[in-house]
Amino acid sequence: MSLIGVAGHVDHGKSTLVTALTGIDPDRLAEEKARGMTIDLGFAWLTLPSGREVSVVDVPGHEAFIKNMLAGVGSLDVALLVIAADEGVMPQTAEHLAILDLLRVRSGVVALNKADLVEPDWLELVREEVADVLAPTSLAGAPIIACSAVTGAGLPELLAALDAALDQAPARRDLGRPRLPVDRVFTITGFGVVVTGALADGTLALGQEVELLPSGRRARIRGLQAHKRKIELGEPGARLAVNLAGVEKSELARGDTLSLPGRLRTTRTLDVRLEALHAALRPIAHNALLDLYLGASEAQARVILLDAPELGPGEAGWAQLRLARPFVAARGDRFIVRTPSPSETVGGGVVVEPVARRHRRHDPATLARLELLARGDPAEVTLAALRGAPRKDAKDAKDSPATRSSSAPTPKAPRATAFAGQSEADLVRATGLPAEDVAEALADLLAREQARRLGALWYAESEWLRLREASDATLAAYHARYPLRPGMPREEWRARLGVAPREAAEVTLALAAEGALAEASVAGAGGAERGGWLRLPTYRAEPTPAQREAIAALLARFRAAPFAPPTRAEVEDALGPELTQALLDRGDLVRVGEGILLEPAALDEAARRVLGHLRAHETITVAEARDLLDTTRKYMLAIFEYLDDQRVTERRGDDRTLGHGAAAAQARLDLQR
């Protein structure tokens, strides 16, 4: 289905012409009928000679209601510019035409209405004037049809011209991300809330859950209508009335966007190609505050000119629009900007990056990337999306949970930008391209080794190399600061680099396969492998000769009193906190309780003796176990705490019994003999 927009100066007979063509009076407000002037958007529909049914939106012609006009012309297929033959081109004719030109509406028809009121010679003069006015715009060469909404003269020719203009209009695309810019909200008794708008970029079906942006509210489609007929599926280009369940009228407003959950994102920053109106009275200055109109939405925007100090009339340049409120936009959307006071149209343009990061002005890399996005080659646009998705900086390690639990501060390392892969659905949303175009672009980029795939996620090759370099630098800095540790804790590495949890395992495996890192594991109690660290492949944790001598002396003390060895505080006094932590990380010592450390062999022997007693006596007390190990109550309580945690023993009141893990523990101990 297609949409025809009727524009033109006030009192040139737009609404009367719509009524004559469709049989529907588009003026629905009592005030409009009383004043004889269109104030807000009006809607109708008709069947053209070809048999296709089209929607019609009639916009206000008075300059006081230009905001309402802008809410109705954002998604036109064809423009019907109405000019009264007895008056010719008037101020709002020129402004409406300038807006259609800035929106790049390239298919249109001019209706020279009220042709019955003028002589043929005058009509030809007006026709020539209109053709001259159209010549520098996107509607250059549009057919000019003389007609009369009162007598009906010329209306068949006008309908045929509209039919032909629709043949020239670009086909509506289904991008799988439906969006309906809401231009009207009302309630119907017994049905509830209804919103209307022109559907773009996808389909909506009866019963679907939908999301309303920017609020994020969820609702369900209770009913769908097009031209007052119930339908079950709305297609791109259709003008729809959507009956919503689960939301109140007060929660909605013109300018909201209805879509499927998760398909669109709100933004406060747009990268755009901005052009100043040829007839603008003043340039658009850097840092100017303008009103932005896109679809049915409007927002105040701060204009950051990226490549010029100002844009004079007719000039174009790269800009970033920083919005005062959350907004919904897609790549390729056309927009209008106006000064708030005096209120006048000063320019427009196209969105090239709908969810943009902030840029430095006059930055060659930024300007080159925007040029690339504007060209629109699917592979280039997809690669740019892979390279340039907005990301937060990775947290300093001191902010990460892994580091907060560490016994020492995180080493300083080169700070990396958070790294994230993107799914094909993410890329469809980011690029505004059809899903099949994105799939083909990714295959092309993969063949050219400019992108790579890990599981369901895609990465630009340049981003992957950046991650690899950041990983190397981060691990090297960690090893330099902690030369005795087996490696960097895996979670701390992930947090430092900003790798998303969902992709950390795939990324680690891929980097390991490339020889960029290795997993570090050490022997724990009973010879069990304990992992969780990452290291550079060439790194080995090696103490110095002096440290080895101190470690040997310390471990000799542990073997002399295996079940009552030095406490952690005593070990740290002898070796220092870092070397103590290294012994724990390497598995030379095991923490069995608060401040209590044991050698793995001593812990195994303790388990062996306790299990032997339990097989013979079924229960054991702390006092019995203390005597069994020739230790003190403090150490025995710590050993029991450890064995309970391992489910080797189970506490029953003051006694211990065999735990669920006792059989497995016994089997492991038997293998050691």
Q: What is the secondary structure topology, with strand pairs?
A:
Layout: E1 2-8, H1 14-22, H2 30-35, E2 42-47, E3 53-58, H3 66-72, E4 78-84, H4 91-102, E5 108-113, H5 120-134, E6 144-146, H6 155-168, E7 179-181, E8 184-188, E9 192-198, E10 204-205, E11 209-213, E12 217-226, E13 229-231, E14 233-234, E15 239-245, E16 257-259, E17 266-276, E18 284-285, E19 289-294, E20 297-305, E21 310-311, E22 316-328, E23 334-340, E24 343-353, H7 364-375, H8 378-388, H9 401-404, H10 424-431, H11 435-447, E25 451-454, E26 457-460, H12 461-481, E27 488-489, H13 490-497, H14 504-513, E28 518-523, E29 529-535, H15 545-560, H16 568-575, H17 577-586, E30 590-593, E31 596-598, H18 600-617, E32 620-621, H19 622-629, H20 633-645, E33 649-652, E34 655-658, H21 662-672
Parallel strand pairs: 1-3, 1-4, 4-5, 5-6
Antiparallel strand pairs: 2-3, 7-16, 8-9, 9-15, 10-14, 11-12, 11-16, 12-13, 12-15, 17-22, 17-24, 18-21, 19-20, 19-23, 20-22, 23-24, 25-26, 27-29, 28-29, 30-31, 32-34, 33-34
Question: How would you describe this protein?
Answer:
By secondary structure, this protein is an alpha+beta fold. It folds into five domains: 2-168, Rossmann fold (3-Layer(aba) Sandwich), CATH 3.40.50.300; 179-259, Translation factors (Elongation Factor Tu (Ef-tu), domain 3, Beta Barrel), CATH 2.40.30; 266-375, Translation factors (Elongation Factor Tu (Ef-tu), domain 3, Beta Barrel), CATH 2.40.30.10; 397-535, no CATH class; 545-672, Arc Repressor Mutant, subunit A (Orthogonal Bundle). The chain contains 21 helices and 34 strands. The strands form nine sheets. Strands 7, 8, 9, 11, 12, 13, 15 and 16 form an eight-stranded antiparallel sheet that branches. A six-stranded mixed sheet has the order 2-3-1-4-5-6, with helices on both faces. The protein has a six-stranded antiparallel barrel with strand order 17-22-20-19-23-24. β28 and β29 (529-535) form a beta hairpin. α8 (378-388) crosses α11 (435-447), α18 (600-617) packs across α21 and α19 packs across α20 (633-645). The longest helix has 21 residues, at 461-481. The N and C termini lie far apart (82 Å). The relative contact order is 0.06. The model is unreliable at 390-417 and 524-529 (pLDDT under 50).
